[in-house]
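Customer escalation, tier 2.

The customer says the design service returned an amino acid string that "doesn't look like it belongs to this structure." They asked us to rerun it and document both sides in this ticket. The original structure tokens are below, unchanged.
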């Protein structure tokens, strides 16, 4: 069994790698203009998913970055000792960005998100019955998406996330224990 100190060193090594990548590469990318005027999070949970009004409605997907994504995927697979599937996109939220209420009901699974938030606790994922506040700089958020699991993202600080789907036998709490 891996010691707590060894896990902490391994996680620290991953976060050092991700922060170095962020500073050297991602910060240099010209970001598109992202609309931040359709945020409907505070209106409460709607009857159906709120559609995006355009490609840049509150957030923007970045595709590519396979080396970066696969490095995180390998870390997760080694840590959890199970296969996972990356979303293959980074989601960037500018300051005051958002992803409105939605369910992902068509794709249920346990989700693991690597998240970078510049300031704490100014970005969060909201669910019908809980809120996950993002830690400053890099951290993992783990949650389960089932039929009608309403959730949204509210980013009052710039936020970058990379999601993975997990279909293994560990529950959310067990995954969290292995990652922290």
């Amino acid at each position: 069994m891996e010691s707590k100190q060894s896990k902490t060193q391994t996680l620290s090594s991953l976060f050092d790698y991700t922060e170095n990548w962020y500073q050297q590469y991602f910060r240099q990318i010209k970001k598109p203009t992202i609309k931040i005027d359709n945020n409907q999070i505070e209106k409460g949970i709607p009857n159906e998913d709120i559609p995006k009004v355009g490609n840049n409605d509150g957030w923007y997907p970045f595709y590519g970055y396979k080396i970066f994504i696969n490095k995180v995927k390998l870390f997760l697979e080694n840590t959890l000792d199970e296969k996972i599937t990356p979303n293959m996109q980074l989601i960037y939220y500018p300051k005051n960005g958002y992803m409105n209420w939605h369910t992902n009901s068509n794709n249920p699974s346990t989700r693991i998100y690597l998240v970078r938030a510049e300031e704490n606790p100014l970005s969060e994922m909201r669910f019908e019955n809980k809120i996950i506040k993002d830690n400053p700089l890099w951290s993992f958020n783990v949650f389960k998406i089932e039929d009608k699991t309403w959730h949204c993202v509210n980013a009052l600080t710039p936020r970058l996330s990379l999601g993975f789907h997990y279909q293994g036998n560990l529950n959310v709490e067990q995954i969290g224990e292995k990652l922290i």
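Tier 2 assessment: The sequence is consistent with the input. The radius of gyration is 16 Å. The beta strands are 60-63, 84-93, 97-102, 109-117, 123-127, 131-133, 137-145, 151-155, 159-166. Sent an explanation to the customer and offered a walkthrough call.
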